[in-house]
Amino acid sequence: MTLDPVLVKRSFAAVAPHGPVVAEYFYRHLFEHDPALRGLFAEHLDEQQDRLFAALGALVTHLEDTDTALGLLRDLGTRHAAHGALVEHFPAVGASLLATLAHYAGDEWTPETEAAWTAVYAVVSDTMGAALTEARSA
Q1: Are the beta carbons of 73 and 29 closer than 8 angstroms?
Q2: Where are the domains of the chain?
Q3: DSSP 3-state assignment of 19?
Q4: Sign (positive/negative) of CA torsion 1, 5, 55, 136?
Q5: What is the pLDDT of residues 33-50, one digit of tens each?
Q6: Superfamily designation of domain 5-137
Q7: Disulfide engineering: 104 pairs with which of 15, 19, 54, 72, CB 3.0-4.6 Å?
Q8: pTM exceeds 0.90
């Protein structure tokens, strides 16, 4: 897997104009494929959807600024620990993220783009997972 910032940024640029519906699709997909995760979230997801899209945008923006990107992910992992998230949830979240990006990226979604996003999500899950685990054990 190769983390290719150009492919990630190009595909996210194709996804971004869809705005809030991207996050709606993500959560719908996530809860359809792992209904047990629904209980971790508030009944109304408007604010959560905004935060998800903002976090994705920040990650993509800072993808080549490793210190900033990893700091964002560590902070997210720590905050997710307080909401009952577990490392075991990350594969379902990753699958829903990739499905959502593929749905909205259109022609920008290629096997190479999927590989690039898979590499990004590996960093996301490793970094957030480590911070989440550390926060839960503190």
Answers
A1: no
A2: 5-137
A3: coil
A4: positive
A5: 999 999 888 888 888 889
A6: Globins (1.10.490.10)
A7: 15
A8: yes
